[in-house]
Specification:
Elements lengths: L6 H5 L10 H4 L7 H9 L2 E7 L5 E7 L6 E4 L2 E6 L7 H8 L2 E7 L6 E11 L2 H6 L9 E13 L2 H6 L16 H9 L5 H15 L2
InterPro entries: Pyridox_Oxase_FMN-dep, Pyridox_Oxase_N, Split_barrel_FMN-bd
Pfam families: PNPOx_N
Organism: Mesorhizobium amorphae CCNWGS0123
Length: 206
C-alpha cells in the first residue's frame, strides 16, 4: 500500500481552493453573533488536542445547552466536570496549548469549528459562574480563539446521524459493563459493573 507523504503530492489529488472560495472566506478570526448563538445552544463539544510529540486525543464534553461560556468575541470558557481523572486533554494543554473544537446542536447537520490556544484556570469567580446546582467545575479551560467557521452538513447527511430510524437497537449492543468485563478480564458480572456505573453517574455528573 502506497501512502501520500508530501503536501505537493496531496494537492495533486485534491483541488487547491482559491482565496475567493467560500471555504476560505468563511473563516473568521473571532466569534460573530452566529457563532455566539451556536455555542449558546450547543450541549456538546469535541475537543481535539495533542501533547506536541505526536500523541493526539479527542475528548467529548457535554452539559446543559450553553455550558460553554462566551467571555468575549475571542475568548470562550469550557468547564471541566468530574471525570475519570486521566486528564488527557488537560495534560496535553499544559504541553501544547493548540486545540480544535467541534460544537454540535442535536438535529442540526451543520457544526461550528473553533481553533485556538487553551489555558487552564481555577479562578474562583469563573468557576462559580459556571457552577451547576451549586457545584463548581474542578477547573476551566479558557480558549483564545484564532479561527471559527461553520462546517457544512455533508458528513451528517451521509451518516443520517440524527435519524432515529437508522440507529441500532440499543438492546442489541453490549453494555459498557459487558465491554469492561471482557476487556479487563474482570470477575464481576456485567450487570454488577453496569449498576456501579449507574450509581457513579448519579453521584458525579457535576
Amino acid at each position: 500500500m502506497d501512502f501520500v507523504t508530501t503536501r505537493d503530492e496531496l494537492r495533486t489529488i485534491y483541488k487547491t481552493p482559491r482565496p475567493t472560495d467560500g471555504s476560505i472566506r468563511k473563516e473568521l478570526k473571532g466569534l460573530d453573533g452566529h457563532c455566539r448563538s451556536f455555542i449558546g445552544k450547543s450541549p456538546f463539544v469535541l475537543i481535539g488536542s495533542s501533547d506536541g510529540a505526536g500523541n493526539a486525543d479527542v475528548t467529548p464534553k457535554g452539559d446543559r445547552p450553553g455550558f460553554t461560556a462566551v467571555l468575549d468575541d475571542r475568548t470562550i470558557a469550557i468547564p471541566d466536570r468530574p471525570g475519570n481523572n486521566r486528564l488527557d486533554t488537560l495534560e496535553n494543554i499544559i504541553r501544547n496549548p493548540s486545540i480544535g473544537l467541534l460544537f454540535l446542536i442535536p438535529g442540526m447537520n451543520e457544526t461550528l469549528r473553533v481553533n485556538g490556544d487553551a489555558r487552564i484556570t481555577v479562578d474562583a469567580g469563573l468557576r462559580e459562574r459556571l457552577a451547576i446546582d451549586g457545584k463548581a467545575p474542578q477547573s476551566v479551560v479558557v480558549v483564545s480563539v484564532r479561527a471559527a467557521y461553520m462546517h457544512c452538513a455533508k458528513a451528517f447527511m451521509r451518516s443520517d446521524l440524527w435519524k432515529p430510524e437508522t440507529w441500532y437497537d440499543r438492546a442489541t449492543l453490549p453494555t459498557l459493563g459487558q465491554i469492561m468485563r471482557d476487556q479487563l478480564t474482570l470477575a464481576d458480572t456485567a450487570g454488577d459493573i453496569d449498576r456501579e456505573l449507574d450509581e457513579d453517574y448519579q453521584k458525579t455528573l457535576w
